[in-house]
Amino acid sequence: MKILVFSDSHRNIAPMLDAAEREKPDQIIHLGDHEEDALRLRELLPKTPVLYVPGNCDPGSDAPQTLKPVIDGVRFMVTHGHRYQVKFSLMRIGLAALEAEVQAVLFGHTHQPCAETFENVLLFNPGTVGGRGGTYGILETTRDVITNYRILRTQE
Fold this sequence. Notes:
- The strands form two sheets. Strands 4, 5, 6, 7, 8 and 9 form a six-stranded mixed beta sheet that branches.
- The chain contains three helices and eleven strands.
- The mean pLDDT is about 95.
- The chain has a single domain (about 1-155), classed as Purple Acid Phosphatase, chain A, domain 2 (4-Layer Sandwich), CATH 3.60.21.10.
- The longest helix has 10 residues, at about 15-25.
- Helices cover about 20% and strands about 35% of the residues.
- It has helices spanning about 15-25, 35-45, 90-100, and strands spanning about 1-5, 25-30, 50, 65, 70, 75-80, 105, 115-120, 120-125, 135-140, 145-155.
- The chain starts with a strand and ends with a strand.
- By secondary structure, it is of the alpha/beta class.
């Protein structure tokens, strides 16, 4: 399964649509900072499931701050990251992921791409898809295992 991961789109829909057309994902996950962008993706790409969480730029959102979906047998924790103070350290989000017993935590907020492990948990931040020099993430899974992950640049 191919999962397309966006964060911090800040009302910049076009690069997400371009990436979705290019990548042909089975699932899209939007990690906040403008949840209305995720809702717009749902409208424009009705055949592709879209999960999302709100970010710090989504005040008053009714959406859950954290999701723990199982996708293709892989246990994920999905959050924007601001509540875990990820701009300062990945320790809190790493410990939360261990407590949640997930295989990967997907987060944004920093606008800086990151793919590293913490006690065998993948900490994956696709960076920001909004703005110049944007980035997004791809995760590929096969029956309970993340087989590949990468961070790519949007086409400018």
